[in-house]
Amino acid sequence: MPAPQAMRRRILEAAVATLAAEGVSASTAAMAKRAGIAQGSIFHHFESKAGLLNALYLELAEEVRAAVLADIPAAGLREQLLVVWGRWLDWAAEHPARRRSLMLLSLSDVITAESRAGSARNQAAGVELFQRAAAGGPLDGQPIAFLGAVVEGVAYAAMDAIQRDPERAGQYHAAGFAALWNLLRPA
Amino acid sequence: MPAPQAMRRRILEAAVATLAAEGVSASTAAMAKRAGIAQGSIFHHFESKAGLLNALYLELAEEVRAAVLADIPAAGLREQLLVVWGRWLDWAAEHPARRRSLMLLSLSDVITAESRAGSARNQAAGVELFQRAAAGGPLDGQPIAFLGAVVEGVAYAAMDAIQRDPERAGQYHAAGFAALWNLLRPA
Amino acid sequence: MPAPQAMRRRILEAAVATLAAEGVSASTAAMAKRAGIAQGSIFHHFESKAGLLNALYLELAEEVRAAVLADIPAAGLREQLLVVWGRWLDWAAEHPARRRSLMLLSLSDVITAESRAGSARNQAAGVELFQRAAAGGPLDGQPIAFLGAVVEGVAYAAMDAIQRDPERAGQYHAAGFAALWNLLRPA
Amino acid sequence: MPAPQAMRRRILEAAVATLAAEGVSASTAAMAKRAGIAQGSIFHHFESKAGLLNALYLELAEEVRAAVLADIPAAGLREQLLVVWGRWLDWAAEHPARRRSLMLLSLSDVITAESRAGSARNQAAGVELFQRAAAGGPLDGQPIAFLGAVVEGVAYAAMDAIQRDPERAGQYHAAGFAALWNLLRPA
DNA sequence: CATGAATGAGCGTTCATTCAT
DNA sequence: GATGAATGAACGCTCATTCAT
Question: Tell me: the pLDDT tens digits for B64-88?
Fold first, then answer.
């Protein structure tokens, strides 16, 4: 019973690496090879390629949530957001292949509406923090999906900048957060 | 040769529709079918699928630029940005398939570095406007690529919101712009 | 009326060059391009690709015959054969593309039995010379086709050697002829 | 994996038959059909069509060598050559499709220089026999490639004659050998 | 006649999935 | 379970040939 889960993990890790390297069109054979198993064995653990990719999408989304939202210290709202911001950028910087896979998957049409909804539910707690920060600002009262997308847009811009130019990571981290805070707060 | 350009256009339009409907992995056969021509005929007008997609990418990028940046009225910076913002969201709302295609293409690795550079050059005038608006704000002095990505992130969030919920288009338009202006300006 | 023949010639010359460069699978489009005409124009001068290749085969075969067998001086048999041998090797050395095309065509199955028969008839006079030389030797009385093939085999070996190593052309010329003469004569 | 080699063999046999029947441009689909397998299955056993054809070329070349050069009896040079000559003609007569395939392949440009070199190395022992027989004759001291080509040319002429007119096989066999021996020996 | 765009069958190759071992 | 050979539909692309201009 421990083995099946371990095999599943190995396949998912291999899938991350393969996706990051070759895009969503990476073959299941390439994933199997990277996992060190036979081509056909993947299908003992996942119903289909689509099933595997959806499972991976959910795992990665949950991983981000855990990395970013676990044990947020009791503190002022700005300090809490700063913690979240920092963890988010750090996760992206430390796991570029995972970030790339997650992004490729979220843009691919193999990810079902159900998977997307699950992922969104997952991140609700995080968005809610930003929602509180938006009180009185221009996005006060806007739907969560909109607010979340705005925040995500700014965060992805910072992640891309850091990945492109890691030596100025601190500068992008600080400027990005200042911009985001500005964006949320009343003028 | 009554209209070699007309056939090219028909293929590109069919490609937009097919990409929007089926993703980047849409087959050239599907595009040909939608264009009402034989499969092989595509290759009289484009060297390869990659060539077709790059041409489409450049056309769409130029189309956005023309729609958004043409004849910006002499006015205060805020009014100019508001014009740009409005035209951008309008283009997206009016051409959802084109927007989706452009996004899918820009995330795909068939688009060459050269195409991307051409597109970036194209949009330089627009980004420069935002750069001027950022003076004194948290993104003052940041690289153009970072600033552009932040602005794009906010704009895409607004476009998605409007597409999801067109009845509140005005609200997303106004709140998005206020947030963007806040983000750029000094606290 | 002069023009049609000129165009035909141009196409055949282009076909030779294209065949030599790209093999029998060379496209008619490539030949048309090399001839400086439109793809479709080839089919105003030749019924089909197969028709073109058969015509080329016959032209080349006739060209060899003319180059090798025209005006053979009255002389002893050995001297006559030496003239033929020399002209044959010279033609091959001077027209490698034509030789290669002729060989490719003769091995291809687009050349009909009729074309082959025509070419064989053409060369009968030449083979007859060798037949006379074979009198009393081991091939005396053998069918013309067999005798011709043997002679051809020796000649092609010499041509290949000269093409591979042109500096020793004289040596291959002389040794090849001596071997051929030995082969034909009584022990 | 009951017999991975068996499938490989079946494909190679089907390739021989298909090549002999349709020429080098025979499709892999036709080979698969003749082998009774799916089109795609060929590519589990061979990397590509070119890989398959090169493998076939090497197998056939080795097969000829084994059939012709194995266990040559200790005897006078003439008797040894006669054994080789006989085995060579017999192999060709018994395996016309294999001979035709080998010839088509050797003239095709899908066969790599490496394959050709391997095949040449393979046959060195045979050519060396003819080289010894050439001592004192017109081809004494000529490069192996030239000598080999001459011998091959005479042999192929005999094979063709036998194939065309099997009833006189003995006559072509004897006359061909006499001619070859004459060719090699001093006048 | 010349043109070259259009055709559509066919090519070599890939790949998710199945299944006998 | 694990294996990997087998499948066959699909893919991007080529090409001889046709035909409206």
Answer: 999 999 999 999 999 999 999 999 9
Q: Which two tokens stand for residue D183?
A: 């060719």
Instruction: Fold for B70-184, please state it.
Output: Tetracycline Repressor; domain 2 (1.10.357)
Distance CA B42, CA B48 (A): 8
| Topology, domain D62-184 | Tetracycline Repressor; domain 2 (1.10.357)
Rounded Cα–Cα distance for residues A150 and A131 (Å): 11
Chain centroid, CA C49 distance in Å: 20
**Smallest Cα–Cα separation from D107: which of C109, A34, A137?**
C109
Residue-range domain boundaries for chain B: 70-184
CATH number 1.10.10 is the correct assignment for the domain at A1-46: yes
Whether residue B179 and residue A179 make contact (CB cut-off 8 A), yes or no, is: no
Q: Which fold has domain A61-184?
A: Tetracycline Repressor; domain 2 (1.10.357)
**Tokens 């990659």 — which residue?**
B50
| Rounded average pLDDT over B115-123 | 93
Cβ pair C161:D149 closer than 8 A: yes
CA angle, residues A163, A168, A174, in degrees to nearest 5: 100
Task: Look over chain A and give the mean of its residue pLDDT values, rounded to a whole number.
Answer: 95
B176 contact A CB<8A: yes
Mean predicted lDDT score pLDDT of chain C: 94
Span C23-45, mean pLDDT? 95
CB of D99 closer than 8 Å to CB of D159? yes
Q: Is some CB atom of chain C closer than 8 A to the CB atom of D167?
A: no
Q: Which residue has the tokens 């929007």?
A: B20
Which amino acid residue lies closest to nucleotide F19, measuring CA to C1'? C40
pLDDT digits (tens, 9 = 90+) for C70-86: 999 999 999 999 999 99
Rounded to 5°, angle at Cα D126 from D125 and D129: 90
The answer to whether the CB of D182 falls within 8 A of the CB of C150 is no
User: Which pLDDT value is given to residue B1?
Assistant: 44
| Pairwise CB contact (< 8 Å): A172 & B146 | yes
Q: How far apart are CA A123 and CA D15, in angstroms?
A: 59
Class assignment of domain C58-184? mainly alpha
* Distance in angstroms (rounded) separating the CA atoms of residues C99 and C90: 11
Given phi > 0 = left and psi -120 to 50 = alpha, else beta, which region is D141? left
Q: Is D6 on the interface with C (CB under 8 A)?
A: no
Interatomic CA distance for residues B160 and A152, integer angstroms = 13
